[in-house]
Structure formats: structure tokens, C-alpha cells
Amino acid sequence: MADTKILIEQAYSAFNKRDIDGALALMTRDVSWPKASEGGKIVGKEEIRAYWTRQWGEFDPHVEPLATMTEEEGGKIRVRVHQLVKSLRGDILSDSEVLHVFTLNSGLIAGMDLGDEADFIAGPSAAFAHRS
């Protein structure tokens, strides 16, 4: 679990630094990712790159793990995070705790799901409801 914890912490750090290449290097080629600010899911590194580029052009999200990561059946890793979403002007749009559930494959992130929001496929997460 120590290696897993380091991998996931590195992914959050890269995301917060806007280091897309650094984050994508920690993921499988066919990684599955939720589009929290738009709704739906995407698959693949280039889709994530395009999504994050759009997202960061509209919002300033920052996510930090809060508690110990827990492993559940099927190798899923649950991480409770503090998510702060600001407008590009610096206004706080959302300040909340959310659950991220990671799937790993061969030491890389193969997927991430939003654990607290079962309906994210229908639309954006509440954290991104206010457009800047």
C-alpha cells in the first residue's frame, strides 16, 4: 500500500501544479476518468489532457487528500479529499470534501470514479455548477 499511496499523492501533486505530463505518466494508456466539471466519463490520456486543459481554462480546482487511503475489494483505493474550486478571478465556488475511488493496474492508475456522486454521468459535479 505504501507504493500506492506515493503514486496517488504524486498524481494529486502533479494535478495541483498543472503538470499534465507528470500526472499522465502515472496512468495507464486507457485510463478511465470522470469529467466532474462537465459530466460523463472519458478514456485515454489525450482525452484527459484535453479535458483538464478546458477545465483549467474555466476553473481553478485544487484537491488534497485528507485521510488515510483505504483499500477495498477488487483493489479499489478510496481517498477522501478536500476539493477547493475557485473561479479564475479567485472567487470560491466550492469548498467541500469528496470521495475519489481509484483503480490500479500494474502499478499505474487505470481509473478514477467520484465516490459520492452517483449521478455525475448526467451532468457536472455540484462543485462546478457555477461557471466563471
Automatic annotation (TrEMBL):
InterPro entries: NTF2-like_dom_sf (IPR032710), SnoaL-like (IPR037401). Transmembrane segments: none annotated. Pfam families: SnoaL_2. Gene3D superfamilies: 3.10.450.50. Residues 8-110 form the SnoaL-like domain. This is SnoaL-like domain-containing protein. The lineage of its organism: Bacteria, Pseudomonadati, Acidobacteriota, Terriglobia, Terriglobales.
